[in-house]
Amino acid sequence: MARVLSLLIVLYMLSGLCSPGQAKRLPGANPEKILYKKVKNYKLYLHVFYPKKKSNRPVPAAVFFHAGGWNSGDPEQFYSQAKHLADKGLVGISVEYRIKNKHKSHPFDSVEDAKSAMRFIRKNAKNKGVFKVPIRRNKIAAGGASAGGHLAAAMATLSGFNAKSDDTSISTVPNALILFCPVYDNGPGGYAYGRPGIAANYRKFSPLHNISKKMPSTIVFLGTKDVLTPVPTAKKFQRLMKKEGVTSILRLYKGQGHGFFNYGKEYDKTLKQMDQFLKKRKYF
Description:
This protein has helices at residues 2-14, 79-87, 100-103, 107-123, 147-157, 202-205, 231-243, 264-280, and strands at 32-39, 42-49, 59-65, 91-95, 135-145, 176-180, 218-223, 248-253. The protein is of the alpha/beta class.
């Protein structure tokens, strides 16, 4: 059965149904690009959208991580959501992080980069030489899709995978989580368990296996036909969150597969529900 499930997952990924290339794009978008990290010969950037109305007072922010199985993808996937929230008064950020096809990296490196990005944002939140609009350090939501959803959740749960250059006194835990079809179970039978290094370290790498009271309020969007993160996995995550006394909202989309939120009416509906989630928590 495990071999059959693994084969189905591979075929599903090859079919392109979870491809970030299907994401709703934002033609003509021109975010500011801010260098947050240099590693080996690579430079990694934050792609930043600002509110139209400039303010000297700090505003909330939302930080997004694209899909692609830690292998591929690009920050443009979340330009639309980042720009949408910037139009509502937040600083919207889509993060570039190391991926296998471009940087010959491992998923552990992607987690390290996500943490570096959050620490950079919090450290420089009120630095006028970095961000044109100051950011509230205690009002930073993080979101992502698929592997990017894993990264957002990883920042809230995992204690390891910290860059040597990072100031680890700066917390990487977001103040809210917005997860789209996240692959946050990496244990036996879970996503990427068979990849080199993960089986032996899944208890350090899998957000599902590291849930605690420090987790922020979370909303998860998932299709009922998602084979990478099955509904029972999402319900287990929600159950464990609630056991720790943490708000966990699960929005199921009947008949939808992985990546459903990228287009059409599902895109519009998830955007509306994301807004409601953030508004209730006074992000705007």
